[in-house]
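Listing S7. Sequence submitted for prediction.
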Amino acid sequence: MVKWFGTCTDIQEQKQIEQLLLTKNEELKKINEDLDQFVYTASHDLKLPIINMASIFDELKQSATYQDPEADQLIALFQKALQQIYGTINDLSEIGKFQKNVYNTIEPVHLPTLTDEVKASIQELIATSAAQITTDFSQVPYLPFSKVNLKSIIYNLLSNAIKYQVPGRPPVILLKSYVYSPDYLALSITDNGLGIDLDKHQKKLFQMYKRLHNHVPGSGLGLYIIHRIMTNNKGLIEVESTVNKGTTFRLLFPHNPTISA
């Protein structure tokens, strides 16, 4: 009887611990959802006042006269501050939209079609950089994933591959999908750009607002968003890079044979 009582007590304690963990997980999930909603709502509500402020300031510049000899410099500083505020609000808005889309329905996404949509959205960037983009989706034309999130991934990867080109060298980019292993499907993008010093930057590569090349305009959110999407969907990211030669990002998606075209 003593042995039986002890065993039951252990099982009861284990169940209590499991129930406590479930409760805490639900609480954390609710807190995260509330925080995401706050970020999204706050960024949306702040946009209009900033736009109005910029419009009023533009009107003042055209109609007002300034006696201070440093007026032009002060005006330039104010404009820069407005742009920074607006940029931060846009960043928060993008994060909020991304968080709301993290758990979108998984479906077979046609990679050639989705990539064409992304290329159309950055057509001007492709044209001005003279980028050559090649795709090979012959092995895996359909990728089971959230279409919204996959489009965000391809958009950020392609945009970065073009923006971080070596000056005077047109970007050459290969986007490819294939079976990586029995458990994973791969989507890789290889470029001939500036490259990344992984010894120096690897630990901070996917941090929010982390920028590796400050001479290129950007918010530093692209890789952060990609990393969050992949992590939340049990995916992996591999990076290979050589400075001044190029970079390969290899994204590994859990393979679910039950979801097919």
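Caption to Listing S7: primary sequence and predicted structure tokens for the chain studied. The chain is about 55% helix and 15% strand. The mean pLDDT is 80.
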